[in-house]
Amino acid sequence: MGLIFIRTIIIFIATLIVMRLMGKRQIGEMQPYELVITLIIADLACIPMADNSIPLLYGLVAILAIYLIHQIICLLDLNFNAAKAVVSGIPSVVLNKNGIDDAQLKKNNLDVSDLIESLRVEGYFSLDAVQYALYEAEGTFSALPKPDYESLQTSLPVILIDEGKFDQKNIDLTKKDKEYYLDVLRMHGCKELKKVLVMTVAGNGKVYFQQKGEKYEVFHLDWQQQLW
Amino acid sequence: MIRTIASIFVTLGLLLGVSFYEGARVKNTFERFDAVLRVLYDKTESGEVTYEDGTAAEKFWENQKKTLHIWLPHTAIQEIDYQLYEAVGYLYVGDFDSAIPKIEILLGMCENIPQSYRVSLENIL
């Protein structure tokens, strides 16, 4: 029984570490340790139930061990902030007044298109319409819009450059070519394509442009007509 | 918070209690079964064994295994049953030479089974 107890703790810690390393995308809406408990407890309950050769007590002790771990984590969670940060993680502010925080995105195994998708789900279609956006510790997404955000998203923006790579399909949509956009980049002080974190363009020519490690810029392209 | 702390101590106490009891119970049962088997082995080797000695060992095991089902995987108990019934069967027909290896297997099991329940690194890994 002592063996099952120790092995359960080892599996629990290993699974929790893996879940924490995988980042918030994998977690869903539960705290990482809650998900680990859910995964393990389901299996622990099943094995002695399905296999008659295993004493039922084996499953009960393992589940009791999981309960003990849960209670200890709850106690740490409530009383020690440092422990809470290690076990449950902390919210990640991925978009702030300077624009997208690339380091925070990478830390959570996310990319710019994931952020844009999360913003769209929340009803924000333009990156500059939001003051702050963050992924909570349990993986949900929250965003604080600018007071006049509705006026900032009159046309759907599409991604032209995502982390140094052109999106040819969206470039074709704008009826321009890569050279045109490389000129735009040069005019805004960007000499290398790989330094671009994101560049989106809306149908009215409004561009959201951000270089890696720099503040974002919003400008308008001199388009004669609204394209979409 | 007091409730959480209390539940931690109660659960921990329960788990440690069950662990220690299990270890002691399995060890004690197999030590006693080992003693019974050693007597049977010595008697078989010297040719003084009777069928009744075999059934006495069988009866001892039957009494012990009722509670051992709580602690041991049932397949381990079935394996002991199989070896013991075979050994007693050989004693019934007076084939002592065939009974000795079976009793030796049982003695080995009496040594190995409690060891596999010890809290040790090789058992954990």
Written description of the protein model:
- The complex is a heterodimer of chains A (228) and B (125).
- Chain A has 228 residues and is of the alpha+beta class.
- Helices cover 46% and strands 18% of the residues of chain A.
- Chain A has eight helices and nine strands.
- The longest helix of chain A is centred in the N-terminal third of the chain and has 24 residues.
- Chain A is elongated.
- By secondary structure, chain B is an all-alpha fold.
- Chain B has one domain.
- The model of chain B has no long low-confidence stretch (mean pLDDT 91).
- Chains A and B meet through helix 1 and helix 3 of A and helix 1 and helix 2 of B.
List the SSEs and their pairings.
The complex is a heterodimer of chains A (228) and B (125).
Chain A: H1 2-22, H2 32-50, H3 56-79, H4 81-88, E1 92-96, E2 99-100, H5 102-107, H6 112-122, E3 130-135, E4 141-145, E5 158-162, E6 165-166, H7 168-173, H8 178-187, E7 196-201, E8 206-211, E9 217-220
Antiparallel strand pairs in A: 1-2, 1-3, 3-4, 5-6, 5-7, 7-8, 8-9
Chain B: H1 2-46, H2 51-71, H3 74-93, H4 96-115, H5 121-124
Which residues of chain A sit in consecutive blocks of at least 5 with pLDDT less than 50? Answer: none
Distance between the termini of chain B: 35 Å
What would the principal axes of the Cα set say about the shape of chain A?
A: elongated
Poorly predicted sequence stretches spanning 5 or more consecutive residues of chain B: none
N-to-C CA distance of chain A: 67 Å
Strand order of the largest sheet of chain A: 6-5-7-8-9
Integer average pLDDT of chain B: 91
Largest interface pair? A-B, 23 and 24 residues
String of helices and strands of chain A? HHHHEEHHEEEEHHEEE
Number of helices of chain B: 5
Q: What composes the largest sheet of chain B?
A: none
- Give, in order, the helices and strands of chain B: HHHHH
Q: Give the helix tally of chain A.
A: 8
What is the name of the CATH topology of the largest domain in chain A?
CRO Repressor
Output the radius of gyration of chain B. 19 Å
The geometry of chain B reads as elongated
Rg from alpha-carbon coordinates of chain A = 24 Å
Tally the structural domains of chain A.
Answer: 2
* Largest sheet features of chain A: 5 strands, antiparallel
